[in-house]
Amino acid sequence: MSELIFTLRPAVTHLVDCRALTPNMLSGKALAEIKALRLSAQHTVADVFDVTGEDVTHIIFKQARAVIHYVGYQMKAGQIIIEGDAGDFIGAAMQGGVLVCKGDVGERAGDSMRRGMLLIEGDAGEYCASSMKAGTLGVLGKTGTRLGYGMKRGTLLLAQAPAAQATWLDCGWHTLPFLDILYKSFKTLDSRFATITQMRVQRWMGDVSGLGKAEILVLA
Amino acid sequence: MNINGVHIDDSFAEAFNMRGTRVIITAQNLKWAYNAANAMTGFATSVIGCGVEAGIESELTSDKTPDGRPGVSVLMFAMGSKVLMQQLETRMGQCILTCPTAAAFSGIASEDQISLGKHLRYFGDGNQVSKLIPDANGVNQRYWRIPVMDGEFLTQETTGMVRAIGGGNFLVLGTSQPQVLAACEAAIEAMKKIPNVIMPFPGGVVRSGSKVGSKYPKMFASTNDAFCPTLKGVVKTELDMDIESVMEIVIDGLTFEDIALSMKVGIEAACSLGASAGIKRISAGNYGGKLGQHHFKLHQILQGNLTGATTHE
Known about the structure:
The complex is a heterodimer of chains A (220) and B (313).
Chain A: E1 3-8, E2 16-17, H1 23-26, H2 31-36, H3 45-48, E3 49-52, E4 55-64, E5 68-69, E6 79-84, E7 95-101, E8 115-120, E9 136-139, E10 155-158, E11 168-175, H4 178-186, E12 200-206, E13 214-218
Parallel strand pairs in A: 1-4, 2-5, 4-6, 6-7, 7-8, 8-9, 9-10, 10-13
Antiparallel strand pairs in A: 1-3, 11-12, 12-13
Chain B: E1 2-3, E2 6-8, E3 12-26, H1 30-40, H2 47-50, E4 53-60, E5 71-78, H3 81-96, E6 103-106, E7 113-115, E8 129-134, E9 140-148, E10 151-156, E11 158-174, H4 177-191, E12 197-198, E13 210-212, E14 221-223, E15 245-253, H5 256-271, E16 279-283, E17 294-297, H6 298-302
Parallel strand pairs in B: 2-16
Antiparallel strand pairs in B: 1-2, 3-5, 3-6, 3-11, 3-17, 4-5, 7-11, 8-9, 9-10, 11-15, 11-16, 12-15, 13-14
């Protein structure tokens, strides 16, 4: 079965809510039904995307731009690849599966995420990993202000050092054995994350204004 | 039947249904993987006194382990699932958690899962971290990272439990203690190369075979006097006058075929020393065939019939 591909039409400039376009939401739907789904009062899927393919467990957004929001919202399993940039709340409330964005993302990526892997190859906007409950969120590019705001548990893996924050505490540099297993899981992905091999990381714990059981692991 | 001048008795080993599991132990290097695994499989020779029978199955290179470090695989067997779970948890806590750089992973797939680090995680006193990471097949596996003084102890949450067989065996009879031990050492070296089996006794060899019952009412097992060479004049002996020493190799394995193959390989290795090296007879231990569910017939196995056709349910 070929992947289900949503190619963003170049003319689209309005915000697009992609909450309905996850493997669990599309499960059991035929291509025609998917095309007819309403994304808002004014727009169906077919108005916004060219849609091809049938495998709803492997979804690709092509020619993606920052107008698409809530990609992977509450996704439970499967895989979503965003080829390009994405808007806000990418992977918000994610409950499983893998979401890879090859470009930059907007604000609150991984907000309230509970499980699964959200991998961002570009930059992430403000409030990345806000209120995250668990799971793994990786960012290869820069991160915005208020990183991990209210983050409770989970792992934030960063290739570049973030700005210092008062509610995140430095626990020093470590060689962590679990990273080898995590990196092996990256190897199955078509992503720049698959090239990471560095086992030595700087560990920060926070957000100590709340529960404080989350970690930021910095590769830089 | 005769191999290289060694007589093979027309007898059988009587073995029992057990529950088994496999754990992969890794560490910074093989030395520390062995330190952990040797501790975990120590005092695990017989279910009678130790609860479980355990041993190191094989060495694993770093490309064969989940975390890319060298390791060993450990097999552990018990008479029931409850005691296997208890023993695994205790040994994980005292032997693997405590061992510098050691990590533990599931070594066998099964619908029946038993705790590896599931309860051990509480040692982290609230600072333990759970990670759910997909394996090569995309199936999520849960790991626990427990902060310890050397860094982090990494363990998978559970491992599989499977039906297994314990108590496959054969006896090596010879004209002197050193000669019989040499034959047993040769057998163990060959048997170590067979996967899915362990020989749980010290160095793989046991010298104190037992019979059921005793003259003392409180003892339910006692020395196998019929095979004790120093008693051959006074008891109903199984030994000819030229037999001065008998040793036994006990095998636990995942399937009938695994044990049968290891018995074949071991007996052939022992017999390769030949009658001229003092090896006179190969026999097997049984209880008349009424207690154990599995009968390993020596002649059938040595003729190459390794299937479980002789299994008695």
